[in-house]
């Protein structure tokens, strides 16, 4: 039985409405979407490094020293004849692992500290926040350098240092959010009705904390990647011959005039990665912040 014109019109309207909303959403967040695509591609390439390059990143072939970019070596070779593309692909693993791990750990620990300080308040709040203020008084990169210098170089110590430098940021943000949330009428009503603390936290506090915490986490991921790169550049993170972007830039800076491709490619990848994460954070902020969502 053929469909009536009215039925056909009803089917087309939702499809047109969805396509219009999708086009508007893409137009509004186009930069964030492009940045997300680039960052996702970088992550996938680092994970699939063995499939994308036939060279061992640590294999030295001295006869191939300082080869310029070519079909055989798209990013050229370094002073030991190692393929720069292979080292860039494998080198992103330590940076991204440190970045994601430090953000997740600092978000969990700092968020818990801020939640406890704000919800229970009083003396607990004063003690915890004064400790966080002391840690925040140090610049994050300087604090990370001090911690690594005390613990010694190494990937695990760099992870500890970066995490410790970011915990106060999440603690302070969480406290400021929870302090305002506990005064909301729905939280006060839940308390008046005798709702247990764990139910209030799970049903009312945590869901309203998530959007700003996600935005902050995306911003801190860029900071973590930059700090990890800086530590490795200074020789306080991973140790040779492990490939790493910061270490490659550090080793290649003395070759800037003789073989500029050696420090250039890891440097440009670091820049693109940090910029893409920042643009993703901007897009998340615009989408999750109700004050900004109605603009544009």
The quaternary organization reads as: single chain
Structural class: mainly alpha
Radius of gyration over all CA atoms, rounded: 24 Å
Proportion of helical residues: over 70%
Count of alpha and pi helical runs: 12
Name the helix and strand elements from N-terminus to C-terminus, one letter apiece.
HHHHHHHHHHHH
Q: How many individual β-strands?
A: 0
Major pleated sheet: none
**What is the CA-CA span between the terminal residues?**
46 Å
Low-confidence stretches: none
Strand content: under 5%
- Kindly report the average pLDDT value: 84
Principal-axis shape equals globular
How is the secondary structure organized here?
Blueprint: H1 5-28, H2 30-47, H3 49-52, H4 84-120, H5 122-136, H6 140-151, H7 155-181, H8 185-192, H9 197-233, H10 245-252, H11 261-288, H12 290-293
Helix pairs in contact: 2-4, 2-11, 4-5, 4-7, 4-9, 5-7, 6-7, 7-9, 8-9, 9-10, 9-11, 10-11
């Amino acid at each position: 039985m053929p469909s009536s014109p009215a039925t056909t019109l009803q089917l087309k309207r939702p499809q047109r409405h969805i396509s219009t909303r999708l086009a508007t959403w893409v137009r509004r967040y186009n930069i964030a979407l492009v940045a997300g695509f680039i960052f996702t591609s970088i992550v996938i390439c680092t994970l699939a490094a063995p499939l994308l390059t036939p060279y061992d990143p640590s294999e030295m072939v001295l006869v191939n020293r300082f080869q310029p970019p070519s079909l055989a070596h798209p990013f050229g070779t370094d002073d030991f004849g190692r393929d720069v593309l292979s080292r860039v692909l494998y080198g992103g693993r330590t940076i991204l692992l440190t970045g994601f791990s430090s953000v997740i750990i600092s978000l969990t620990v700092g968020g818990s500290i801020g939640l406890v300080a704000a919800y229970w308040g009083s003396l607990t709040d004063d003690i915890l926040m004064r400790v966080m203020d002391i840690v925040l008084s140090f610049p994050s990169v300087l604090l990370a350098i001090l911690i690594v210098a005390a613990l010694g170089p190494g990937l695990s110590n760099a992870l500890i240092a970066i995490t410790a430098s970011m915990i106060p940021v999440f603690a302070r943000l969480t406290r400021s959010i929870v302090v305002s949330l506990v005064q909301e009428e729905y939280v006060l009503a839940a308390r008046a009705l005798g709702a247990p603390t764990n139910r209030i936290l799970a049903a009312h506090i945590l869901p309203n904390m998530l959007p700003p915490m996600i935005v902050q986490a995306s911003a801190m991921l860029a900071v973590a990647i930059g700090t990890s790169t800086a530590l490795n550049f200074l020789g306080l993170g991973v140790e040779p011959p492990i490939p790493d972007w910061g270490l490659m830039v550090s080793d290649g800076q003395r070759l800037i005039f003789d073989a500029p491709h050696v420090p250039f490619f890891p440097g440009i990848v670091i820049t693109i990665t940090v910029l893409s994460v920042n643009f993703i954070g901007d897009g998340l902020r615009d989408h999750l912040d109700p004050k900004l969502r109605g603009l544009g």
